[in-house]
Amino acid sequence: MNQERIFTILIGPHVSEKATIVADQSNQYVFKVAPDATKPEIKAAIEALFEVSVTKVNVVNLKGKAKRTARGIGKRSDTRKAYVTLGEGQEISFAASE
């Protein structure tokens, strides 16, 4: 996989209360990913960018909500999340290190 594709697969970390609980309990991290990303591509991107070993990747497709606007009914965009399980004793730090 080329370097450009690695950077387009991962959109960013998904920060929420549930994501924090999952990270503490079962060593999983949640990422927003591209809609066309596959599990092997997500695994390769995480391993290349963060230098960790990934044991499992679960993917969730979220449908966008229909919302009323002044001009009628609109729709939020669909999103895709990846729950990434890391190997024993490994972690990802999102804090900027100097």
Description:
Helix content is 30%, strand content 36%. It is an alpha+beta fold and 98 residues long. It has a single domain (3-86), classed as RRM (RNA recognition motif) domain (Alpha-Beta Plaits, 2-Layer Sandwich), CATH 3.30.70.330. A four-stranded antiparallel beta sheet has the order 1-2-6-3. Strands 4-5 form a two-stranded antiparallel ribbon. It is globular.
List key phrases describing it.
98 residues, alpha+beta, Alpha-Beta Plaits, four-stranded antiparallel β-sheet, two-stranded antiparallel ribbon, 3 helices, globular
Overall tally of structural domains: 1
> Mind telling me which CATH architecture this is?
2-Layer Sandwich
CATH superfamily: RRM (RNA recognition motif) domain
The strand count comes to 6
Give me the side-by-side strand order of the main sheet. 1-2-6-3
State the end-to-end distance.
29 Å
Largest sheet: 4 strands, antiparallel
Q: What name does CATH use for the topology? A: Alpha-Beta Plaits
Stretches where pLDDT is under 50 for at least 5 consecutive residues are: none
Please state the average pLDDT score.
91
Q: CATH class, anyone?
A: Alpha Beta
Helix content: 25-40%
Q: Which structural category do the helix and sheet elements fall into?
A: alpha+beta
Radius of gyration using CA atoms only: 15 Å
Shape: globular
Beta-strand proportion: 35-45%
SSE topology string: HEHEHEEEE
Show the helix and strand layout.
Elements lengths: L2 H7 E4 L3 H10 L1 E6 L5 H12 L3 E9 L3 E4 L2 E4 L3 E8 L12
Antiparallel strand pairs: 1-2, 2-6, 3-6, 4-5
